[in-house]
Structure formats: structure tokens, C-alpha cells
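Problem: given the chain below (396 residues), write out its structure.
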Amino acid sequence: MSGAAPSVPPARHGLLILVLGVLTAFGPLSIDMYLPSLPLIGASFHTTAARVQLTLATFMFGMGVGQLLYGPLSDRYGRRPPLLAGVLLYCVSSLGCALAPRVEVLIALRFLQALGGAAGPVIARAVVRDLFSGPEIARVLSIMTLVMGAAPILAPVLGGAVLAAAGWRAIFFVLTGIGVLALALAHWHVPRRPPLPPTAALHHNVLVLLRDRRFVTSALAGAFAQVTLFAYISSAPFVFMTLLHVDAHGFSLLFGMNAFGFIATTQCNRLLLRRFSVAGIACAAAVYLCVMHALLLAVVHFSEPSLPRFAGALFLCVIGLGLVFPNVTALALEGHAKLAGLASSLLGALQFGAGALAAALVAGGHSAAPMVWMMSAGAALALLTSATLWRSSRAS
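Solution.
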């Protein structure tokens, strides 16, 4: 533990990790629950699919911007005050999304919703670094992913059921309720980490992180992996429901299947860490991603469109990300116990910023090719940065 870390009895670690997993689920829940409703939102507001997709890109951008705020605040004022303020903003803006009269208002409120929700993952990662070190960080992050990863499995199914029963606005009422629950859990269970007096100006601490080659390389590897993930998330409804004529229920099942595979690989990561290094696993996973994306490109460009072939190749691509994210995050946070909040902020901002850019670039496409090429580019760049991490870890 770091010197200013909160004291949490080991017997309560399991409950705390569960709560932290819930807090990191804001992003997946807020994206995946409403994905099946995108076509109906467009019809409700009499607008184009590309304009409705901006509600997704804006949310991702808001998550990136928001993550820049909460880390430094949590280092300076403790973990809980900025966390509770952010979750409260999430609740209020989610309620506003449910009542939005125009698509432009929905786009703006989705930004505010993300700005509040960003507090969850940033401060959750910082709390993990407060309490754990070394490979244990990656193991705990893998457990948190088990909790967080239930969101992509359950959210599309829940969102589809709410959509069928009460319309798309009801989805945001449900998200408001989830936010209120998370607010209560954060208040009662997130430890009161003592604030740290500023040892240097913020810009100096940022430079410290940016001069750390391992931090920068790890953060870039996570950002490129996020490009792959968000290109998939933002385009999947269009590709499956419009091009491949899958209904909302079928899309929810396919999306949930991919999320289940992602979660399964994060749990395999805990076993692999017993025998292999964190950097080695991340590099091997990136190699796997590139091979699977080559297969996906072949399916898209050299065969007749087929739902089973496309869905199967996409599944093999998505599951590899479960071995990348926890390990590159652990490598980024490991050497910065006193700047855990700021490191978590920069890490998350870079990831969501890259993801938002990828989502915006593939928006409005007329085939699966933009999604697949963007995913493949992210995988290739993740391999380059992960290989650098692996080489530097072997040299040290």
C-alpha cells in the first residue's frame, strides 16, 4: 500500500471490488443499454442515423474530457467528494436525457451524462492503486472487469426489454435509478482516502508522467485497444441490424455473446498471471488480435456476406481485448502510487478520446468495411506499443 492509502480490512476487499466494478460500469451501461434503441430514437426525432450516432460519439468524448478532471481532484481532496459529485451529475443528466425534446438536447445531455459518469472508472482505478501493487493490480482489475463486464451482457437485453415495454425514454429512467444506487454504494463503501498536499504544480506532475516511458507506452497501448473496441461498439447496431437484418433481440444476444467472451478472457488473465509477466501477456494478446483481425478482413472482403461467418470472426476479435486492458492499465499505474488519480485520469482520457475519435470516423458508413478497418488499425498499433512494453520489461 502507498503511504496515504486508506485502511480497508482484507475481509472487505471483495465487497469493495464489487462496488468499484459497479462504478466502472457506467460507461458500458450508458452505451449498451440504449444501442438497440438507436433506430427508434432517429425515427422519434425525425433525424438521420448519423445524427443519432453523435449521441454515442459525444458520450465517449465526454467520458474522455471528464476523466481529465476527477483524478487530480481526487489526489488533492480525497477520493470520495469528487466521486459523489460526479455520480450525482450522472443521475441528473440521465433524467434529462429521458425528457429531451430534441436530438440536439439529447446530444448535449449525453455529454453531461458522460462527464459525470467518468468519475466512476477514474477513481475506481485510483482506489485499486491505493490498495494494491505489482501484478496484484492486474488481478484486481480483472476481477473488476468480471463485474463491469456483466453490463455489456445484460444491458442490451435489459435495454431491449425496456424498449419493447415502454419506449426508448424509459431506458434513461432506468439509468437514472442505477446512478442513484451507485451513489449510495459509493457513499457507504468507498474508503475515505486522506487528501495529499500538493507536492508540485499540476503541470509538473503531468510532465512527470509524460516523461515515464512505461506509462506513456502503456497508455497508448490501451488507447489503441480502445479504438478497436469503440469502432466495434459504435458501428455494431448499423452493421448487424441494418446490413445483416438482425432484429433488436438478436442483436442483444450477439452483443451479449461478445461481452461474455470478453469477460471470460479477463478471468483467464488471472490464471495466466501466475506463470507469465503482465507485459508478456499484453504483447501475446496483441499478436492474437492482429491475426484475428486479418481473418475478419478476409471475411468482409473476400467472401459473400454471411451472419455466422461475420459474427464468429468478430467474436474472436473482441475476446482478445480482455487480455489487453487489465494488463496495460496495471503497467501504467504501477510506478505512480502518489499520482494514482492523475495517472488514472490521463490513462482514461487518452483511451476515451481515442475511442470517441474512432466512433466519429466510422459514423455514417454504408458497409462493414469502415468498422473493420478501424478495428484492425487499432489492433496493429496496440501490437506495436505492447511489443515495446514487453521488450523494455525484459531488459529491466
